[in-house]
Structure formats: structure tokens, C-alpha cells
Hints:
cytoplasm; GlmS/AgaS_SIS; 26 strands; carbohydrate derivative binding; GlmS/FrlB_SIS; Glutamine Phosphoribosylpyrophosphate, subunit 1, domain 1; aminotransferase; Rossmann fold
Amino acid sequence: MCGIVGYIGKPKDIHEGLEALKRLEYRGYDSAGMAAYDPGQKEILCVKAVGKIENLEKRVKGIDIKASPSLFYTRWATHGGVTEQNCHPHADCKGNIWVAHNGIIENYQQLKEKLIEQGHTFVSETDTEVIPHLIEHAFRGDLAKAVREVVPLLKGAFALVIIAKDDPEQLIAVRNSAPLLIGVGKGEYIVASDPSAVVGITKEVVYLADGEMAVIKKDGYAVQDIDGNHVKKTVDVIDWKIEDAQKGGYEHFMLKEIMEQPEGIADTLRGRFGERVGEVKLGGLEQVAKRLNAIERVHIIGMGTAYLAGLVGEYLISGYAKVPADTDTASEFRYRSPIIDDKTAYIFISQSGETADTLGALKEVKRQGGLTLGIINVVGSSVAREVHAGLYNHVGPEIGVASTKVFTSQLTLLALLAVFFANQKGTLLPELTEELKKIPETAERFLQDTKSVQQLAEKYAKVDSMLYIGRKYQYPIALEGALKLKEISYVHAEGFSGGELKHGPIALIDERIPTLALCPKDSVYEKMISNIQEVKARKGPIIAVATEGDKEIAKIADDVLYIPRVPEPLMPLISVIPLQLFAYYMAVLRGHDPDKPRNLAKSVTVE
């Protein structure tokens, strides 16, 4: 959610900090602010603006100062409305201590009441503002020492970056259940919520772990635990290029990322096939190979699109590896007293690797001794570091809030895992692996001409509601298609199993509500045809997603989107693409920004 950029080093133009902040826009935000120490004036300049970062840029246009240290921040409102007063960074009574905070302070109300009794004055409605006041109370000239006194008083999840006018030679960063890293440059350091902000500045990063505090100065940094004990850290290298976080000629990141899916699937597959046909090699799981040999069940856990990918994985793993598989939303899993055992592999899926609910479920499984695996896109993220072993997507940064290329990469990894678990039992799956290798080319062929999807969106751009139906492997894709449409075009959409239609949803059908039916030539084709007939009998418009060459479907559907023929278990990798495009074009036609949908965030770091 909220995005933080902190800088310390040779005084630098504040506009460079804003450029780094822009690379965190995809996380979602409703306002932006900055606080920068001007060494010449020995004062901190604070500017805030509601809305986009460009509004903040307008406020600082013409301000020509080189600052260090400095804070830049995008806020996602949790406590208090979307106002300039509530935007970060926040300061103490004297304007000395400045704090940017991602997360939630659960006990802020009690802390605030005590501070007010002590004479402190508050100007915002936020939970964050208690932090600079607490530090003010403890500050005796050494910022690090004051922060170390205050952090144990805070309950909740937080990433903090702190500077002080009266101690401008250091910047403090603290992590507790919210992501934070240090970009290590030449004579300069950039603290950020994720690697996107440091791309183009440095490739070397240090990831802070929970309970760690970094004291950063112009000539170096030291990482400690909250008690002040030194913590030795390794420097990781990120291989992203700055172009990877730019649009590359497309109007929106979402469209760019949809079009990148053939390459993304190929990158996910690269180096993961074994020497024998029908065999996969997943190096990320080698360290837990012995434990995996004893696995009798698989439990997949995620949120949103990651959860829906898990539903497809459930079909793949149970169907091909003959290993019982279940899928849960992370937010519900941990609250139903889950029974964890050592015969189950728990797979946690998260694009960002920072999803709060997923992390909470992961920690609960680990606490009870379960084997945890991860499917993650962001290297070095919290999920990546918490799981016993895992697999990276290898598709580069995904900037659009609505996941596209990471979703198909997740499906690809789940297909590979199905083969892996089958291999564990001594079974090779040559047909599945050979067909997997063809998917990038098939996806590329479909994406060469998207006009039919765009024309379909033009026809339905003014609808208020849509239904999506599918069966078996296409049921999770119906859910994903509906999710994409409501996420970015703000059209009410619901996904259902085709078999569920008669059990309630059919009551909604009339000539005003189109139904998108996923009806490729597969093992449940005839049943889907029956569902389509049921909708048509009630005058509901039908959009069918069907296999190339299917002439029968055109006789009963109002509109048809044809997709290439691929084997049934791999069809979700192709059938989801027109649904992504349809949602994208619907959003654009309705005047919405598909990259930054309202009320949504790329990385949901609070529960």
C-alpha cells in the first residue's frame, strides 16, 4: 500500500526523490508528501498534496533546493480522511522529528491520549502522528537512541523512516511486519518500500527483517536489532532495469504487461525442465526435497488473483499428481483454527511477497511446524524470506495494480508443480510438459490481433452489470475475469460455476445483463452449452469464449471470442488473456485509469 522513499547522502535535487516515488505509484495511494532538510537554511521543507504525485510536483515547481536527508511518501488512508493534514510525513510539536510510516499502529489511541496529557498537540487524525511525538519526548540529541526507546511502545505493523532537523547526519529505518529495504549507492543510500524505487539508482539492496533498525549515514550504515545488537546483513543484487518499470510505448502498464505474457511464461519455464521428457527440475525446492518426498496433501493459500490461481493449481495437482489439494483465502485460513501436519505442503502465492494476510497465514503454519513453499515475484520479499523454499516467477516488475502477467506465471508454476509432484511418485508427464513448452508461442499468436476484443468492449461499454460462468478449469477463470472487470472498469461483475447458475444467479438474467461464458472444447463443453441455452432462454446476451473452429457456438451466442486450441489443463493460460483485454478496454472506454484503480493497492500490506 503506502510507498516510502528516504534519502541520505550528497545533497540531491528534491525532484529526483519525486521521480523515485513515482515508481511506487502502482502500490496505490490517495495523497503524497515530502519533507527535505535544506543544509543551507538548516530547515526542513515539508510539502503535501491530495491526489496524484503530479499535484505535489506542481507545489514544488520552482523550488530549487538540494536536500539530505529527505523523505517522500504516498499515502493510502487508513486512519483519517484524505486530506493534506493527514498526509505524511508527520512531525512533532517543534517540527524537528519527521516520520513516514507504512502500516497501522494498533494502540495509537492510548498513546495519543497519554501524549495529549503531557502537553503534545496533534494536527492530524492519523495513527502515525503519535510516533514523532513519542520520539520528541525521548530525543536528547541522538535520533537513533530515541527511536530505539520508542519502537517497543508501538503495537502493530509498521515500516518507519525517520529524520530530524537537529540531527541531520543520520536517517533511521525500522521494519516490523511491513516491507523496507536499503538501496546501497556510491556515497548515498535510498530507503524504500520495494525495489522499484531504487531501480536506475543502484542494483545493490539490503532487505531489513522484522525487528531490525538501520542507522544510515552518508558514509555507511549499520543494522541492529531494537536492543542495539549488531546484525550482519548480506547485500543482494537486483537485475531489473529502469526500462522494466516504464511503459515501453504502450498507453498503460496494464496493456504492456498483458502483451508481455508470452515472454513472461517463457521466462517462468526457462531452465525448469529435466533431462527426461515429462520431468521438471525446480531448483528452488531442492533444499526441502526430503520433506517433499513424504508429502500426502497440498494446501494452497493466497488472496485475490493469487487465490484464484491457486484454484487452478488445485485442479492441476489433484488431477495430474494424484495428490489431494485444497485452496484457501489467507484471511480466512488462519482464523478457523487450521490443523497443520507434516504430511502437507503449504503453498503461499503472492505477487508482491508482502501481502499481510498471506504473511499472517504463513507465520501461523510455520509456528505449528508445517512445511511452507512460496510462489513469489519479488525477490527478497517477506514471503520469499519466510518460506522454507520457493519458486520465483521471473517476469520482472508488474506495475499495473490488476495482476496479469504474474497471474499467468503463477498458473505456469502451478502446472510445473503438478508435474513435480507426479515425478516425486515416479510418474513422468511428457504430454503436459511438451504442451507447456508451446504455450508462449500460442499466447503470442492470440495477442497478434486484439481488435475483436476491443470491438466487443465498445459494444458493451455502457453495461452496469455482467455475469461470468465457467466449469472445471474455466471456473476459476470466470472468477478472475469478473474480478478484473470490477477492479478496473468499476462494472459490477460476478463469477460463478456453470453448475451453480440454476441455484440462484439465474434469477438475475435479463436482456440488460450480459453473461460471458467460457466454453472451450473440453470435457465439460456440452454442459456449458446447456448453461448458455438457459441464459439465452431468458433473453440474456451471451458472450462466448470458444475454441477456434467451433461453428456451433456462433449459432447460440450473440458474440464469440475465439482462442487457440490447447489441452484442457493448460487452457486457463490462454482463456484468461481475452478477459484481461476485455476488462482493460472497458476501463479505458469508460474513462478510467486501468493502472491505478480507485480504492485498490498493488501491495496490500495491512489486513
